[in-house]
Structure prediction request, 274 residues.
Amino acid sequence: MDFDNAFRIDPGSRVRLKDGDADRSPGADRAEGERRLAEDVERIRDAQHRLFAEGTRSLLVVLQGMDAAGKDGTIRHVFGPTNPQGVRVAAFGKPTSNELAHDYLWRVHQRVPDRGHIGVFNRSHYEDVLIVRVLGLVPDEVWKRRYEHINAFERMLHDEGTAVLKFFLHVSAEEQLRRLLKRVTNPAKAWKYNAEDFTKRSRRPDYIEAYEDALSRCSTEHAPWYVIPADKKWYRNHAIARIVADRLEHMDPELPPLPEDGHAWREKFANGDD
Ligand code: ATP
Ligand code: MG
Prediction:
């Protein structure tokens, strides 16, 4: 199963988000998906080690989705076993007054991964064409010109050595409600409760429309969007881990060789003289 091909949005194509697509699980059953996830997580860990040693490039993974779409769970399952020194997670919530005193990309640019690291965005600059649009936090002409800024920004990241992969975690209205209800019925999940989740869900068609526009306008060769069926958590983890692992292996970071001046030390000591 080629997840990259199956779920990547071709540049210029029009995305339609249908509820019926969210619980698909093409190409794997649960047992197989979980086994492959374990393999792919190892591949990510190994490639990240080489990326760090190489120290010249980075990977940015953007996660977007409605409330309870599973962004946190994805981070735990896909990146949990990778060396914490090599992964930078950044969550973007409501902007602070300091953040609002700057342009919307200011806080984002500060948190892109250092060279050698994987950066994971739990929400991102896309909020500035999603919730900001739906709630009308800025005039229409302001959010409408942001798609172009975002494409240029991501292009710059790519050109300067940061590969960008973007995942929309597609959860159906029904599954989203089921998960949100757990926050009010299961005491262990009560800490996640936020009344806004329910009010936002009542505007779901507006969010879907905003997502369809963002995914359609900002899936590019250099920073593709993927629509991941995410009603089944095991499938979501499996698909994302596979795409990330394949991408890292394609980047093929290399362990650097011993520098010239190291050779003299090797000559001096490696034959056991010390
Ligand atoms: P979960 O998916 O588990 O509900 P979450 O990502 O919603 O978690 P929260 O801290 O509950 O995490 O919510 C962050 C909130 O901040 C979201 O509602 C998001 O839409 C909002 N937000 C993010 N960026 C912006 C922005 N630029 N302007 C306004 N709101 C924003
Ligand atoms: Mg939330």
Remarks:
- The two ends are 55 Å apart (CA to CA).
